[in-house]
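call fold(seq) -> C-alpha cells
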Amino acid sequence: MAIIQKRDPEKTKSSLAKWLSVRMPSATDIEIHVAGASEVSGFSSDTIIFDATWTENGIQRREGFVVRAAPIGEAVFETYELGLQFRILQAVAQNSSVPVPKVYWLEEDLSVLGAEFFAMELLSGKVAPDNPPYTMGGWVAEATPEQRRTMWFEGLSVLAGIANIDLELAALHELDRKEFGPLGQAQLLGWQRAYLKYASRKTVPVLDYAWQWLEDNRPDDDHLIGLCWGDARLGNLMFDDEFRVKAVFDWEMARIGNPEFDLAWFMWFDKHFTVALGMPPLEGIPTDAESIAYWESLVGRKAEHVEWYTVLTMVFFAAIMMRLVQSNIAHGANADELEPMETNNLATQMLAKHFGLLAPT
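ret:
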C-alpha cells in the first residue's frame, strides 16, 4: 500500500520548467514533456519522473530527471530531511562502489513544489514492484530460478558494500542523532521507540510484547556500527537485463547502527511478500542460512544478532503500516476499509506467529 499523493500535473510541469531555468541559466526554451510518478514501488516519499528538452549553446538537448520530494500533508514520517538524503547519496557515491543515482540539485525552497526536493538522473532498468508484489507476477516471477538467485546475491552484495563504508571518510555526522541517545544500540533503539510512539494511536498487545522482548534482549554490538541503508529490499534496487544491480534507491530511513539490521530487513521483506501471504518462496531465492553466510563472507564477520534485528524489523514495519493507514485516510481513502490494518497487518501477524501469541485483531 503506497501513500496517496495528489499533484496537479500541469502546475508541476510549469513549476519544474521555471525551476530548471534557474538551475541551468545557459539553457533556453525549456519544456517539460512528461511528468508522472512511480506507483509500482515505495511507501512514503513523492517521486516525480519527467523528461526535459532545452537549447544550450545552439544545441537542442533532451534528458530525463527524477525528483524526490517530501510528501505533502499527512505522511509516514514526521520529517523527511531531503537535504540529508541528498548528502547521503553523494557520500555513498564518493566512498564506495555501491551504485547510486547521480544527484544534481537540492531545493529547499518550499515555494517551488510545496516541499523540499532534490533532482537526480533518470536511469533505465527493472525494479521489483510492491503493488502488486513482485512474487505475484511480473518480471521477477517470470525470471528463471538462476536469474532470481543472481539478483538476490547482487542485493546482498549491495548490503555488504554499504556495511563496509568507512563512516569517518563518509563524514555523515548528521546521522548521529544525539536526541535519541548515545551513538550505537541505545540511539538506534531510541529512534525506533520515538517512531513507534509517534505512529501508535491504538494499543497493540503483540507490539507491546515484542518491544519488551527487544529491551530484554538488547545485543551488545556498539563495536559493530556502520551505515545502515534502512529500507533494504529488492523493491529499492534497479537491475539491468543481466539481473545485476544498477542503482540503490530510497535512503530516507538511513541510520547508523549494526548493518545486520539491513540484512534482517532484506530477508524479512521477501517473507512479507511470500510466507506472510501464504505463498512459498520463489524458486531460486536462497535460504536465510545461505544469505547470512554470503553476507558474512563479504563483510568479514559473523552475523550474530539476526533474530533481534528481524524482530526490530517487524516492529518498525508494523509502525510504518500504522502511519500508512493514518496518512491515506487523511488523504481521502476509505477509513472503514483501512482502519483494521492499523493493528492487524502482515507485520503484526508475523510477530504473533514468531512469538506464538494470539493473532492480532
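The mean pLDDT is 93.
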